[in-house]
Every structure is written in structure tokens, then in C-alpha cells.
């Protein structure tokens, strides 16, 4: 097949930049990506994709870390004010901001899925005049929300891929699914899409990220070493009392939380691999002469494997409950996020390498690189692999103005062309993988 479509990606590039800067300017954090998701759904529908959205692709009871209803409604209203299509926003009411686009070729072949995250961080973007988004007018106008990890580019790459694949539909086989996921930050969103069955029929799964260390022109075929993680919010409820007159009548929630924080960090590490725990927030009390009746901890556990993380969670729960008993307070624990450990499918690495070798602008290809963190695309990877499919997580290097999650984060947008071209190649030649796909159970 001729590669005229490579020129089509180059011609599309100004539009990619326009889309990315639009998403950046109207940054929306997890579960409130109303405007972003509406734009994605609208474009996919216009191009001829079968679009599923909202509760069709999000399992309500598997969502984690969902903001209060009042905040969801406030953000929905703001999205409408900022030009979101009301028809699509209505599908996302209540924070069900997931979208999938499906292309049925009508020809035999595998189901291949590509996943892209859409959410921004809860971060105020820099207004420094040297910061390119500020200097050129696409700095986030939404207070306390910023694309400081590249998800604006991820969403754009997904749209670019969708546009080109629809043009190439006569050259595709099987079924293509584009997954636009909410709430990756805090690892809150992927599990709910998995539980909704989004990847149940997927044979080949690709997720990707820009940046994270590699230089522009470098492509990592498979990120490995993702740590399994669980994010917990703990609330202790005690009894307030006058600290001078009646201290014996109080039940000190602050002391319970402080003791828990110390003992959590004392949990024995696991001999089978790396384990982590961190209490990042402790808030309590109202005044120096009042026995504190409430306290809150925000913590996370991590493990080199899901089994190790489960051990850390179990031990953490023992500490949390035991400390509550010790101080005579009540405890409530909410799971606000989570991700699995996952490894790329070995058989998929040479395939991705071969595709990336055909992409102009790719200067170096790395088979595997440690991820050094957590990602909830691992839920999707794990489900696909459990069913006999193949999955990998690609990294596309780019020059960064500042590190990820920094107020002056920005990217070299050329990476979007490289990513779109690589992923198009991955979609076009899936017949090469048919002989090595495992039989599904």
C-alpha cells in the first residue's frame, strides 16, 4: 500500500496543533472533561465512527475519586458556557465523561484498541511571560486546572489517528476501537471502563504517553515496571471537648491520625519486590483549646506487583483500624484510585519496532523502558492479556519546557506527528500478528 497518508498527517499537523491548544486552553480535570469529551465525540461522529459515550462505557459503581455532585454540575455548566455541544454534554451528566469510537471494516481481522486519556491536573498554570502558552494565548483559562502531563496532546493524537484511519478504512481489517478515557490522574478512570466491558473483545491494545524522559524522535515500544497502586482517603471521627476543662470527655481524632501516619510508614516491606507507602496529607483540628473531633489522611500504597500492593493495602488497613480502636474513634476509608502492575506483551515489541522504523522523524527505537510510576491503563492491559490478547504501552519522546506536573510544562508539538504516524502503522498491519495471537478462552 502506498504511504500517501504520511503526507496527509503532515497536512493535518496545523489542525493537530489547533486541537491540542484548544484542549490546553480549556483544561478539565478528572470526571469533568465535559467540553473535551463532547468535542471528541462530535468529531468522531462527524467522521463516521460508531460513538458510545457516558454510561455506555463507564460502569457507575467502578468509578473512583468522583468529585461531589455540586462540583460536577458547576463544571458541566462551565463547559456549556465555553462552547461544548449540549447534545453530547447531556450524555456525560454526572461525570460519565468516557467516549469510544468504533470502526467496523466488515473484513475479518482482530479487534485493535487504542487508549487516550483526556484529563488535566489540579494545578494552576504559570502566567510567566516566557511560558509559551501564556505568550501565545492558549494558557488554561480554567482556574486550578492545567494540562501539565500531556493529556491534551494524547487526546489530539487520538483524534489525528481517528481521522487518518477513517480515510484508510478500505485498507484496514477487523475492527478498530479508539478509547478516550477520563480521570487518569489519580488513576481513577480506567477500571470503570474495563468493568463496563469496553475492552472485553479486544485482541490488540495500545496505550501511549508523550515525554517522560526520552528525546524527540525516540520511541519506546513498551513501558514496563508499572507499580500497582491504591489511593486511600481516611477519616477519623472522635468527640470534641474542652482541652482544659474536660479533656477526658474527648476522643482525639488528630492523635489517631498522627499515630496512624507514623505506623503506616513502619509497615514491613515485602521480600518479593519493591513496595511503597506514603501519607501525603494530614489535616485535623479547629483550635488549640479543642480536642479535635475529626482528622483526615490521604495516602497511597504501591507495589512492584499487584500482589505486593495488595499486601501493603491489607497491612495499611490493619494500622488504620487498629489506631481507631486505640484512640476510641471511628474510621471511614474510601478508595479514591488504583492501578495494576502490568508488563507489555513480549510478542508485540518487535511488531511495534518494525512499525516505528517506517516513520519519518523517528531517530531511535527503544524496546523496553522502566515506567517508574503507576498508570491505570494497566487495568485495560491486564484484561486484554487475560483474554489471550496482546498489549503494550508506548512512549513518544519530546522536548519539555519543564517536567511533568510542573506549572510551566509544555511540549514540542512535533511529537504528535510521530505518534500519529506510528500508531497508524500499528493499525494497518495487524494481520501480521494474527498467527501469534493466543486463542481466547
Describe it.
This protein is α/β, with parallel strands linked by helices. The protein contains twelve helices and twelve strands. The strands form two sheets. It has an eight-stranded mixed sheet, sandwiched between helices. A four-stranded antiparallel sheet has the order 8-9-7-10. Helix 10 (349-356) crosses helix 12. The longest helix has 22 residues, at 4-25. The chain is globular and about 85 Å long. The two termini are 34 Å apart. The model has no long low-confidence stretch (mean pLDDT 96).
Layout of helices and strands:
Layout: H1 4-25, H2 34-47, E1 50-53, H3 69-81, H4 86-89, E2 99-104, E3 111-117, H5 132-136, H6 151-167, E4 175-181, H7 190-195, E5 204-210, E6 218-224, E7 228-237, H8 253-264, E8 275-284, E9 294-303, H9 306-327, E10 330-339, H10 349-356, E11 364-370, H11 377-386, E12 390-396, H12 414-428
Parallel strand pairs: 3-4, 3-5, 5-12, 6-11
Antiparallel strand pairs: 1-2, 2-4, 6-12, 7-9, 7-10, 8-9
Amino acid at each position: 500500500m502506498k504511504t500517501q497518508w504520511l503526507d496527509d498527517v503532515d497536512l493535518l499537523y496545523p489542525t493537530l496543533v489547533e486541537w491540542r491548544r484548544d484542549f490546553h486552553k480549556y483544561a478539565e480535570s478528572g470526571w469533568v472533561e465535559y467540553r473535551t469529551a463532547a468535542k471528541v465525540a462530535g468529531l468522531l461522529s462527524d467522521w463516521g465512527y460508531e460513538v458510545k459515550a457516558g454510561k455506555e462505557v463507564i460502569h457507575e459503581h467502578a468509578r473512583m475519586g468522583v468529585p461531589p455532585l455540586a462540583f460536577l454540575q458547576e463544571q458541566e455548566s462551565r463547559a456549556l458556557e465555553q462552547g461544548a455541544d449540549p447534545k453530547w454534554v447531556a450524555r456525560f451528566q454526572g461525570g460519565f465523561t468516557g467516549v469510544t469510537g468504533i470502526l467496523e471494516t466488515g473484513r475479518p481481522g482482530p479487534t485493535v484498541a487504542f487508549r487516550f486519556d483526556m484529563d488535566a491536573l489540579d494545578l494552576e498554570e504559570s502566567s510567566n511571560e516566557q511560558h509559551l502558552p501564556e505568550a501565545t494565548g492558549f494558557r488554561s483559562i480554567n482556574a486550578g486546572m492545567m494540562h501539565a502531563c500531556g493529556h491534551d496532546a494524547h487526546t489530539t493524537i487520538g483524534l489525528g489517528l481517528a481521522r487518518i484511519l477513517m480515510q484508510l478504512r478500505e485498507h484496514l481489517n477487523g475492527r478498530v476501537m479508539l478509547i478516550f478515557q477520563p480521570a487518569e490522574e489519580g488513576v481513577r478512570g480506567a477500571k470503570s471502563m474495563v468493568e463496563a466491558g469496553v475492552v472485553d473483545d479486544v485482541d490488540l491494545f495500545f496505550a501511549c504517553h508523550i515525554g517522560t524522559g526520552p528525546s524527540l524522535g525516540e520511541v519506546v515500544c513498551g513501558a514496563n515496571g508499572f507499580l500497582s497502586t491504591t489511593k486511600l482517603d481516611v477519616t477519623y471521627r472522635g468527640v470534641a471537648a474542652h482541652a482544659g476543662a474536660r479533656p477526658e470527655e474527648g476522643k482525639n481524632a488528630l492523635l489517631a491520625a498522627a499515630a496512624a501516619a507514623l505506623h503506616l510508614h513502619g509497615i514491613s516491606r515485602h521480600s518479593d519486590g519493591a513496595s511503597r507507602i506514603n501519607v501525603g496529607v494530614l489535616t485535623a483540628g479547629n483550635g488549640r483549646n479543642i480536642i479535635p473531633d475529626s482528622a483526615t489522611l490521604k495516602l497511597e500504597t504501591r507495589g512492584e506487583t499487584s500482589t505486593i500492593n495488595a499486601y501493603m493495602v491489607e497491612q495499611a488497613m490493619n494500622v488504620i483500624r487498629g489506631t481507631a480502636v486505640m484512640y476510641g474513634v471511628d474510621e471511614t476509608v474510601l478508595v479514591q484510585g488504583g492501578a495494576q502492575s502490568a508488563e507489555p506483551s513480549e510478542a508485540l515489541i518487535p511488531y511495534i519496532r518494525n512499525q516505528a522504523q517506517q516513520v519519518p522523524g523517528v531517530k531511535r527505537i527503544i524496546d523496553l523502558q522502566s515506567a517508574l510510576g503507576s498508570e491505570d491503563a494497566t487495568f485495560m492491559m491486564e484484561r486484554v492479556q487475560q483474554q489471550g490478547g496482546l498489549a503494550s504501552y508506548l512512549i513518544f519522546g519530546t522536548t519539555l519546557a519543564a517536567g511533568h506536573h510542573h506549572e510551566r510544562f509544555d511540549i514540542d508539538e512535533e511529537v504528535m506527528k510521530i505518534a500519529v504516524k506510528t500508531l497508524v502503522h500499528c493499525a494497518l498491519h495487524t494481520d501480521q500478528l494474527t498467527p501469534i495471537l493466543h486463542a481466547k478462552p
